[in-house]
Amino acid sequence: MDNLINKLEKAIKEKIKPEEIDDFVGISSTVNTIKKSHREVIKNADIVLENEQDNNVINLDQAVNIVYWTYFEQNSTKFVGITWLDDNKMMIIRGSILTP
Q1: CB proximity list for 21: less than 8 A, separation 6 or greater
Q2: Cα 15 vs. chain centroid, distance in angstroms?
């Protein structure tokens, strides 16, 4: 996981586009909202961001693009990824995907 986070941090520094992120990271993302069907995944998912402060700063509905990779930890689905905001700012996001 640390290797993925390091690659995401480097992607932010180099301003990698969502269309290029999978190749840059070297791992296919679970969700990339460049794909229209993945936008629906984000809209329908019950996502909780890891840092409470992030919930106030990042409105996932207003993100221009979101790309994340999932992993499992302590019987829950977690994710780490990048969001591209409308001001061209890129941020690492982490959180959980809740299941019904």
Answers
A1: 11, 29, 32, 67, 82
A2: 15
pLDDT at 52: 55
* Per-residue pLDDT at 61: 67
Tell me the domain boundaries of the chain.
Answer: 2-98
Going from the C-alpha of 25 to that of each of 1, 4, 5, 8, 28, the distances in angstroms are 12, 7, 10, 7, 8
Tokens standing for residue 84: 């591209």
Please report which helix (H) or strand (E) contains residue 78, including its range: strand 76-84
- Report how far residue 11's alpha carbon sits from residue 5's, in angstroms, rounded to the nearest whole number: 10
pTM over 0.70: yes
Tell me what pLDDT residue 49 has.
Answer: 84
